[in-house]
Design a protein that fits this description.
This protein is of the alpha/beta class. The protein has 6 helices and 10 strands, in the order βαβαβαβαβαββαβββ.
């Protein structure tokens, strides 16, 4: 069973989706630690409610923040780090320590709409299709090799929040599935590309009819 360390800055619905997927044996993993840079993050409450060790790590000094996170992740035996709404840019130092072992979720079809409030960027730009992406983190924000993407329609009356909600429920699918693929040893990174080795699919067991999932889901 693979040990996960989850970094989260906010309400933690992606964390919750991972916890549920572990409980429901959709993935062979356990969340060993949750770390937040925000003392008030509801993600920390969710961790505690599930008896998962939860730590607030002050980020006023970036280097110290990352060193502490690294130390906690190591001491909890973490094998894969998940950025689940962790709102800081990790330094090259941290990325190097966890190279090819950090997966992030971004609420847009990368490389469109990197950075903050991607859903608002998508609405304001007027795109007709939006979605979400999981990727390995590298030194550049929202840039590393893409694992999975899923596309949803933008509807005529959508505002930022209604679109964000439609994207979020799919985030809750592709993030656990990406962990599953990693755990199964099916993700092969070749430069910018992630090759997904053949195996099972979640399309039959956990998908929505109005969503387009990339190969490997
Ligand atoms: C998600 O939309 C995620 O993609 C983005 O931040 C949001 C976090 O939501 N990076 P939650 O804290 O998991 O509910």
């Amino acid at each position: 069973m693979i040990k996960l360390g989850v970094l989260a800055s906010g309400r933690g619905t992606n964390l919750q989706a991972i916890i549920e997927a572990c409980k429901n044996k959709l993935i062979n993993a356990e969340v060993s630690i949750v770390i937040s840079d925000n003392e008030k993050a509801f993600a920390l409450e969710r961790a505690k409610n599930n008896r998962i060790p939860a730590f607030y790590v002050d980020a006023s000094d970036k280097r110290k923040h990352e060193e502490k996170m690294d130390e906690l992740l190591q001491s909890h035996g973490v094998e894969l780090v998940i950025g689940a709404g962790y709102m800081r840019i990790l330094s090259p130092w941290f990325i190097e320590r966890w190279r090819n072992k950090i997966i992030n979720i971004h609420p847009a079809l990368l490389p469109s709409f990197k950075g903050i409030d991607a859903q608002r960027q998508a609405i304001e730009y007027g795109v007709k299709i939006a979605g979400c992406t999981t990727h390995f983190m590298d030194e550049e924000p929202d840039h590393g090799p893409i694992i999975l993407q899923a596309a949803v329609k933008v509807l005529p009356n959508d505002d930022r929040n209604s679109l964000a909600a439609r994207i979020l429920r799919v985030e809750h699918q592709i993030l656990p599935r990406s962990i599953d693929l990693f755990e199964q040893g099916r993700l092969v990174i070749e430069g910018r590309k992630v090759k997904i080795l053949p195996g099972d699919s979640w399309l039959e067991k956990y998908s929505y009819p109005d969503v387009l999932y990339s190969e490997g889901y």
